[in-house]
Amino acid sequence: MAVTIKNIADACNVSRGTVDRALNNRGKINPEKKELILAKAKELGYKPNYIARSLKRGKTNTIGIIVFNLYNEFFSSLINSMEEKAKEKDYHIDLALTHYDKDTEKKCVESMIRRQVDGLILCSVNNKKDYSSWLQKFNIPVVSLANKISNKIPYISVDDRRAMKDATQYVADKGYDRIIYISPPLAYEDTHNIYALKQRFEGFSQVNMEHESIIIESKDYIRELETINILEYKTAILCTSDIYALEVLNYLKEKKIKIPSQVGVMGFDNINMLKYIEPHLTTVSYPIEQIGAIAIDSISQAIENGNKIQNMVITHEIIIGESL
Amino acid sequence: MAVTIKNIADACNVSRGTVDRALNNRGKINPEKKELILAKAKELGYKPNYIARSLKRGKTNTIGIIVFNLYNEFFSSLINSMEEKAKEKDYHIDLALTHYDKDTEKKCVESMIRRQVDGLILCSVNNKKDYSSWLQKFNIPVVSLANKISNKIPYISVDDRRAMKDATQYVADKGYDRIIYISPPLAYEDTHNIYALKQRFEGFSQVNMEHESIIIESKDYIRELETINILEYKTAILCTSDIYALEVLNYLKEKKIKIPSQVGVMGFDNINMLKYIEPHLTTVSYPIEQIGAIAIDSISQAIENGNKIQNMVITHEIIIGESL
DNA sequence: CTGTTAGCGCCTTCAC
DNA sequence: GTGAAGGCGCTAACAG
């Protein structure tokens, strides 16, 4: 059984109130008694029970974080930066992964609410109109990252549309006259939150190429790619994530297609592992660690001072590699 | 303010006890009343307060997990598998990162103890003899992964010595007659926990090569490598982690040294991203996801049934690539 | 300056 | 079947 304030009080022949004053530098207390109590607490190995404290204070100093998974370095970098920032501000991380499942996500949210997290940061797969009001019902600060939920929920991200437009323009400026655009399915709209994907697609659509673009929107994009004559025209393959681009690179290498002389490839995210990839992938930097730090900052201020969290757009950047 | 059992009780004109019976299927209760109470609970949007429940039950259903960071895919895969397994068993993850700092690790442990985690899984940087008794003082199940703390703390891992011995033997069998062995500093012993590293080094030392091996043990291994005539003899560079091996590959590519015809390279861990790397890295599989799942399994049984957690050795495997 | 006490929300015994 | 009540450990308001 762990040592409690009562144990210390008994051991020192004082009241629990006095022990509390000694331990937490609250109000007036006889310095000698304070010494004695602190010494005894140390001797007994007292560790405050934060569960009890949380119950009393109605605050757990915990931020719930819900993301898809940690297989994509994008998210592990995010969690890494958030944990660091959270620790600095004396918050804990309650982490849950949805694996892109909407029901799992809802369960995660509910479970976190039951655990009385002080705030919620999520990269959501949910999209239904009523999801955002459902979230607001819980009356704690919520921040969405990377995938907007609604205008009601603060959203921190890059400008996905602009970023993909810039990427597409960069491809065009490089002299490519046709693009094969690879994205996860865009038709999932009524079942999944694909806000960012749609934004990117719109951005892509704003740039005109000489020859008609080919859109592949499928999890099975490599198989789709096989049905296309890639070498026709001066073609670039533009992917909505680096991971997709890496798979494409692998496919092209297998087919002995030269990059970038026969076909160009461009990714999106600029994940760290790219430094080990050859050829160096041209991509768009997504400053996910910065976004994570900002999210923790904003949400902790919202928790502590009731500040409203502002939407925020972080600057992206074209990263020039050798794959285009 | 969130809805409590008392609110429901008042709304239904029953006692809190009865609400509890309805909500948790406890004991006898008038079916009609139960219906009414459940309906009311739903209507009011009742969500049990787990903090209060935890305080009462003395169990938080939370497992504290402490690892170095998430930059190495090794750890993000680990967390990923643990989160999945934990969710399945209705545990939450309290995640903290140490960034290889011993004091940070201790603070993380203390903070988790204060939060009353039911168990602790850690990949430790601490090594001092008294660390393991300090850990045991808290009287909750503890499991160490990947880096052994002491014989007193259950340890789940591969047999690092055997694994590196097998790797070295594989290199020798491939016809290499000299090895450059790259490891983080082994001299940190009095400051850091380098159990696994030492085991690997011992395993490596058990195999005799024709020419004397060169040991590089430094964070600055690339610079060290520059001072060596790599092309002398038939040399293989054996690294204690894939990440190191990837850096070495980058260095060799930059120097236009052909792999494996001029020099061989071997890694350790078999992280997922290797599938995007060329040439395919020969490495040792470290079944970290399996280890994570086993750790959660064992610790949850220890929490629930008081089972003693057994040490466990998981099978490694040589992964044959094209870099050797 | 110090002790007492009433909860935070839930769970559990005990009595009716 | 149901209600009343105490307590998990900590905090804070109130007495003294």
TrEMBL record, chains A, B:
Source organism (scientific name): Vallitalea guaymasensis
One annotated GO molecular function: transcription cis-regulatory region binding
Pfam families: LacI, Peripla_BP_1
CDD domains, alphabetized: HTH_LacI, PBP1_LacI_sugar_binding-like
Keyword DNA-binding: yes
Protein's name according to its UniProt entry: LacI family DNA-binding transcriptional regulator
This protein's UniProt keywords: DNA-binding, Transcription, Transcription regulation
Span of domain HTH lacI-type: 3-57
